[in-house]
Amino acid sequence: MAVAIALTHVEFEDPGTLLDELQRRGIGVELIDACTADLSSRALREADLLVVMGGPIGVYEDAAYPFITQELRLLQERLGRNAPTLGICLGAQLMAAASGARVFPGKAGKELGWAALNPGRDMTSCTPMAELLQPGLAVLHWHGDTFDLPVGAAHLAATRAYDNQAWSLGERTLALQFHPEVTARGLERWYVGHAVELAAARMDVVALRAAGQRHAPPLQAAAQRFWRRWLESALPS
Predict the structure, then answer these.
(1) Which of 21, 181, 194, 215 is labelled catalytic?
(2) Range of the domain at 72
(3) Does 89 participate in catalysis according to the annotation?
(4) Which residues are within 8 A (CB) of 46 and not within 5 positions of it... i.e. 6 or more apart?
(5) Crossing angle of the two packed helices 90-98 and 67-80, in degrees rounded to 10
(6) Using only C-alpha atoms, what is the Rg of the chain?
(7) pLDDT value at position 60?
(8) Annotation marks residue 181 as catalytic
(9) SS3 content of the chain, % helix, strand, coil (to 5)
(10) Where are the alpha helices (DSSP H) in 47-107?
(11) Cβ of 91: how many Cβ atoms within 10 Å?
(12) Most buried of 105, 121, 137, 152, CB within 10 angstroms?
């Protein structure tokens, strides 16, 4: 049986709808806490799929959070041999850094809330992205950092605030700055876990919840199709 390992940085930022699709395909899933795990383990290096989730820290904060250095080494090793790897938000930033690209605080400030994606210039190189670029579909953005596009990467999606929202290196490597995995119910934990960040950004949690209740259900349906199509190419049966 194929095995996927998801590295989490805070427990409530979990694989969400991706977990459902992995289980539907009969893929075993293990959640591992990146902050405390042995990131040099053979299991992580050899997992059929490695998923790196989001979190409220920066790639460049390795002095404060030493595990980041090990996480980057793990990603460098997997990306170097084209092992199936998916990064979401912080995970996408870590993948960019592991590929030699710069990660830095975005000049446009925090991108926090629901908004549509615009097609990237190389969008057709990853046909599953079409599921997340449907007219009227909004995805969740929750980040302040951004990154340069790695050399050789396909540019898949953008927003007005930040151009680099998704990139890939072939069919097995995918990095998403936004959050297609979320559900309205799961986001209730985010509102609590990120309460300090939301208050600092002067975000209205009631309004953010209402937007989530409106936008999360259509995103969930589109994301299920997106995950299904991407997994078919990244982990062919």
Answers:
(1) 181
(2) 3-234
(3) yes
(4) none
(5) 70
(6) 16
(7) 98
(8) yes
(9) 40, 20, 40
(10) 67-80, 90-98
(11) 28
(12) 137
Integer Cα distance of 233 and 231 in angstroms:
5
pLDDT reported for residue 144: 97
Q: Which residues contact 124 (CB under 8 A, 6 or more apart)?
A: none
Q: What is the CATH number of the domain that holds 81?
A: 3.40.50.880
> What's the pLDDT score for residue 83?
97
Within the chain, strands assigned E span 3-8, 28-33, 49-52, 85-88, 103-105, 111-115, 118-119, 139-143, 145-147, 154-158, 166-168, 173-176
Instruction: Read off the tokens for 4.
Output: 């996927």
Which member of 9, 179, 194, 215 is catalytic? 179
Q: Answer yes or no: are the C-beta atoms of 128 and 92 closer than 8 Å.
A: no
Q: Could you report the average pLDDT of every consecutive run of 10 residues in the chain (237 residues)?
A: 96 97 96 98 97 98 98 98 98 98 97 98 96 97 98 97 97 97 98 98 98 98 98 90
Write down the pTM of the prediction. Answer: 0.97
Question: Given 9, 21, 71, 89, which residue is catalytic?
Answer: 89
Cα–Cα distance list, 2 to 27, 30, 48, 57, 91 (Å): 5, 11, 6, 30, 21
Q: Is 175 exposed, middle or buried (0-12, 13-18, 19+ CB in 10 A)?
A: buried
Residue given tokens 């830095």 in the structure block: 104
How far is 156 from 152, CA to CA, in rounded Å? 13
